[in-house]
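User: structure tokens for this one?
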Amino acid sequence: MKTEMIRPGKNPSVMHGHSFKEVEELSMLRSEVEMLAQEDAQLMKIVGAAALFVSHLQGAMLPEGALDAASTLAKLINEIPDDTMCDALEMLNH
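Assistant:
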């Protein structure tokens, strides 16, 4: 995501037709959206890694506690839409 930087010495309200408060709010919102996008990317990598982990466990002998956790994880992974899972697995390669 590309963000627009405000150059020092320039009046943002003159540059963009917005008040300083509006520019400040937009900047805060932009920062929050960027943070959420980064968190989303990290969660997608975790989901992809979890899916790979579960796929390698198929048929493995696990202790009962681990079996319950793996089963829960597998159910949650199966609820993820296919296109989202493909994106998550693809992100592991980047």
